[in-house]
Structure formats: C-alpha cells, structure tokens
Amino acid sequence: MKLVVQEFLTLDGVSQGPGSPDEDTSDGFTRGGWFVPHLDEEFERLAGTWLDQADAFLFGRRTYQNFARDWPAMPEHPFAGTMNGLPKYVASHSLTTPGWNPTTVLSGDVPAQVAELKRQPGRELQVHGSARLAQSLLAAGLVDTLRLVIAPVVVGTGRRLFPDGGAPTGLRLVGHRTTPAGLSVHTFAATGLPAYGTYGAGA
C-alpha cells in the first residue's frame, strides 16, 4: 500500500484543532475550528474521491479517539460506511482497548510496523490528521504522498505540521486546485532529501 498523509493547515502552518474549538486544546490552544468556515461542496466531493482510494487508515492516539467517538454516531453521513468499515491502525503506547472495530493497535517500533503494512497489497494507507505521527513517518522516509489542504486563515499559535527541527524532506508537486470557499489543495510526492543550489549569474 502507498502511505498517504492528509492534513488541514492554516497559512501559518498550524494543524492543531481544525474541526472545532474543543477538538484539541492541548498546550492551551484556544483557536480550534478554523477550518470549518471554509468548507464547501466541492471540497466535500474531493474528500470523497480520496476516501474511495483508501484500503486502511492509520491514526495517532488523539485523532483516533476523536474519530472513534464521532464516526459511529454519524451513520447517515456519506463517509460513515468507509470510515467505520475499513481496517484501522492506531499508533499508541497507552491504548489497549480501542473499541472502534476493526482496529489494530501498533506499539513498540511503529515505523517498522508501518513499513510492514506498506508491503501488504492494497491502494492507500491513509493518515488523517495525527500530525505528530505524520512527522515521525516523514522522518522515517515512509510517506509516499502528502495531501495538504490550506485554509485562508492565520491563527498565530498552535502546533505546526512542520516544526523547527523537523526532518528535511524533498517534495514534488503533482496536483493543485482551489475551491470556491478558498481552500488551496496541494498534492505532493515525497522525493527523499531536499535538493539545494546556488542562485546567481552562470548558475
């Protein structure tokens, strides 16, 4: 399977708490819900096409617990059958009874276990949110594709997907579009380490 990371970001790179004010208040974050005002039907359709490519999901513990609480309670949502029915994996050293079936807990050497999952047949193993997990997977060189959805807002504080000291990663743009509500959607293929050069005459 191909490992695909899907993240919602602000213009200043924050990935924390896109869906509601109380989604993730860790470290005193009080500006959650910044993504919601920019949702529109075109993005909903696009997100549906992405879900149609998934054969399994991979989450960090916090995102998993939020999804496990919310998706079983929304059986009429058009994405509910996919989210509730496909195999799910959660990276956690503390979660022992996940409850949202079918779920497998990954602990110990998570990158090695994710590498093994990638060797299984299938299309996409999708990471939704779970920024800390996404950072570790990027550092391990396991991410094949990044889908970044950037909202036209600056929140000024919060946990960023690409923090200072993060792993350097080369990317190649393979697709981009905007939605009527102003979301910028960028799809990148990971290419290994970044390339560097020098700008100047004769370069």
Topology:
Elements (H helix, E strand, L loop, with lengths): L1 E8 L31 H11 L2 E7 H10 L9 H6 L2 E4 L11 E4 L3 H9 L5 E5 L2 H9 L5 E6 L19 E9 L5 E9 L11
Parallel strand pairs: 1-5, 1-6, 2-3, 2-5, 3-4
Antiparallel strand pairs: 6-8, 7-8
> What would the average pLDDT be, to the nearest integer?
95
- Total E-strand runs: 8
Strand order of the largest sheet: 4-3-2-5-1-6-8-7
Order of helices and strands: EHEHHEEHEHEEE
Work out the strand percent.
25-35%
Considering DSSP H and I runs of 4 or more, what fraction of the residues is helical? 10-25%
Oligomeric form: single chain
In brief, what are we looking at here?
The chain has 203 residues and is an alpha/beta fold. It is built from 5 helices and 8 strands.
Using brief descriptors, characterize the structure shown.
203 residues; alpha/beta; 5 helices; eight-stranded mixed beta sheet; single chain; Dihydrofolate Reductase, subunit A
Verbal overview:
The chain is of the alpha/beta class and 203 residues long. It has a domain of 136 residues: 3-Layer(aba) Sandwich (Dihydrofolate Reductase, subunit A). 22% of the residues lie in helices and 26% in strands. It is built from five helices and eight strands; from the N terminus they run βαβααββαβαβββ. The chain is globular, with a radius of gyration of 17 Å. The termini are far apart.
